[in-house]
User: Fold this.
Amino acid sequence: MLQRISQLMVVGVIAGLLVAALALPAVGGMGITARNVANGFLEMPSQLETPPPPQRSTIYDSEGGVIAEIFDQNRELVDIDDISPLMVDAILAIEDSRFYDHGGLDVSGTLRAAIRTMGGNTEGASSITQQYVKNVQIEAATSQDELDHAREETISRKIRELRYAVALEQRMSKDEILEGYLNIAYFSDGAYGVESAAQHFFQVSADELELHQAATIAGLVRYPYLYNPRFFPEQTEERRNVVLDRMVATDAITEAEAAEAKEYELDLDLATPPNGCVPSDQPFFCDYVVQEIEQDERFGPNETERARWLRTAGLEIHTTLDPQTQEAGQDAVDKWVPRENDSRKVAAQAVIEPGTGHILGMMQSRNYGPDESRLGETSINFTTDSDRGGSSGFQAGSTFKAITLATALDEGMPFSTSFNSPSSTTVSGQTACNGGRLENWSLSNAGDSNAGNHNMISGTKASSNTYFAQLQARAGLCDTMEMAEKLGLKRADGTLFTENANSLANSSFTLGSEEVSPLRVANAYATFASGGMYCEPQAITQIEDRQSGTTIDIEPECDRAIDEDVADGTSYLLSQTFNGGTAASLSIGRPAAGKTGTTDGSAAAWFAGFTPQMSSAVFVGDPRGPQQHPLRNVTIGDRYFPVVYGATIPGPIWQETMRGAHAGVDTEQLASAPGRFGSTSEPRAPRNDDDGDEEASPASDDGGVPNVVGMSEADAVSALEGAGYSVNVSGTALRSSESEGSVAAVNPDPGSRLPEGATVNVFLSDGSGRESADGGPGGVDWHPVLPAGPLNGRDGRN
Assistant:
């Protein structure tokens, strides 16, 4: 203890002499100044916190793959044992050859600097410990004032650093100080710390550095901008040789070894790790994770502190992203809506795991970047809400009809709840949540929704607007909005339907005229899939804070939102859309439920659907303004579409995503229809009898889609239209044994039961070969893709 006190006093006196020598031109005043400074030195605070310096944070997918690295400083910490001895010798030789001999202050070097300064030649005299102290204070600064204070060129700063350095030498070992210095030092060109410098300049680890490489890196510390190898290679090489000469002088290497090292060219192999979400392969999910951390009060008192924590704490952020799902979804999105399509349409999709809220994937047909004026580039995540980097949302169309079904079932209505649903109707008597009575609402069916007497099953299959308008009126508009909020739905601008003045007056809520995000829709449908358990969307499962040595585990936040029977009943109804309904052509080879959605005027098109394991919602539209740029007479990629419906593009995106995402996943069954909701039969169509009742719709006949294979185009179109269907004749001929120009195949297959007005696709033969043994051009799993070129008839359904 006495030895340490003596050392402190000696250093204090030296500090006083140093200040006097550097600050006073008159030698006569030196004694008084030295004594005063020495006394003040001993009374200065000496405890310096030495937290780990800023380092890279890494975002991982659910399988441990790297999604992105995010950092303010490119730094990776290493132990002293993982640094090449040559690197240690090089830094000691050029920066502080007496490091292991002095106590934080190189006395002889300091006095020499003082004497030379008195002679008019300024010379630095900082030991490695003093440099480490300065760097620690710079990195700890949280304001510009603190940063200026740590960098100020004053004698008081030098004395303050010296006091901290002496105390640090008494608290830490030499190896610990040297390790800290090599990890915190800036080595030029954006490389902080010796490990990042070795990787950046030579693409090797710090323990693999050879002599010429170690000398190069060691020479950068003093003036990292002047000796930047990228821009000043000649100065850098000269500096390297100075380091090698110093290593010879300190007996670290021989003259022969130095001479050999000097023969090497710099031989840079520059590599900088990508920083942030822009270079990521999953940029929009990455951006969502960043938004989650920066916006969540659990991770810091304010957004500035949370952003700093993310970029400096060396976090290991483990997420829910499933690589298989993400790849399948991105491939499907890019296939159907190419990123740089001239129509500027966009497809966006979110996939959620029912029962956990885990976000398995986020995909959209845009490159991630800040320049919105560039074709195919955006920084807006169209899959999510505005407070997480998303847009103000898009009208969801008939995907909202599922909410009305759930509301009706929750109020005890059976599946057999029926209404006469003509092609157009007027609904009156609706009441808003604020008690206001709404004006009469006149509406009509979409062109492909069949009129007639419907119950919940047939009305859902046909996606009849007039049926659902009456069902909403009976269930109650306010109750329907409240059900949507129970399912986690809200406007993408963050407001609740029941608190938004425009929403309160929205008679057409069931038709999806509210602007929402695909993430919210997918999560609402996931609540049906999970038997009524609502879970908050979750992207992060765990955060390991390497700086503080703590781990934050994030568990799913789930609660029962609706009765299990209500959820299962809604799932059953939505599953019927694949059984002759609007999703008849979108089977994925396993039990599924879903709903198409097309907004008024084809401004936007949607598909939302789920299996027991995954729920997804797909939006397609124009972010410039769907109403101003509708999905009519558009060419997207190399395909022309007179009209885009939910089953035209969103449906196939969903289908291909789900097929790819479920590859290798066990098949699970959807819940059965709960018995409490009664019969699952559809209403019988009226039959012609002696009393002259209306003739049944041809599309309701037991025969279903007529078998027109082998017929001429004209005869086939006539037969199909006569049976009550719309017809789309493909412009691409198929290889078939049928005569050229005759019908080779139809989709859906002959015999399929479809609602009146549904579209049947007709494919003509080129007469050059035979179809597959499974009866279709591509076998049992074949699903025709609509080709480029004008289409006859309608090409999709609501």
Observations:
- Residues 134 and 549 are 24 Å apart (CA to CA).
